[in-house]
Amino acid sequence: MNVEYLSNHPEKIEEVSEMVFNEFIVKTGSSKTFEDVVKHFSNTDTHAFRITFIALENGKCLGTVSIFENDLKIRNKYKPWLASLYTKPEYHGRGIGQTLIAKTIDVAIELGFKELYLRTENASDYYRNRGWTYVETVSDDIYEKIDVFKLKCV
User: Fold this and answer.
1) What is the model's pTM?
2) d(Cα 44, Cα 50) in Å, to the nearest integer?
3) Regions in the chain scoring below 50 on pLDDT
């Protein structure tokens, strides 16, 4: 398995958009359309925000993760954010999520950041068990409970 920049694989943009749309847009009741998500992922970069990675094996996309400047409007003082981590269910248990996170951390360090943040509504234990530090719990107009975590990038 290799982790590569989505921007180097434009043929995977719709597949990544579908994963993110179904997991993070539809489930939240967001008004964003699938076309909005495709447009978002069509404008990713390798050294400036929005950066998206994909896990590839034998040409198949197994999962994705992004680095955003901000992933929680009510907390724009925290930067940057690991966002939209997703592994296809049939590939769970293979360490793909951890590999995608590791790549995200490496690139955050390359970009000069000392901390990386994330938000989760349902996976706090997953991140706690992997060394992320709980920062706070907040609410927004969609979720009553959003846990914010950070990781020191060293």
Assistant:
1) 0.92
2) 5
3) none
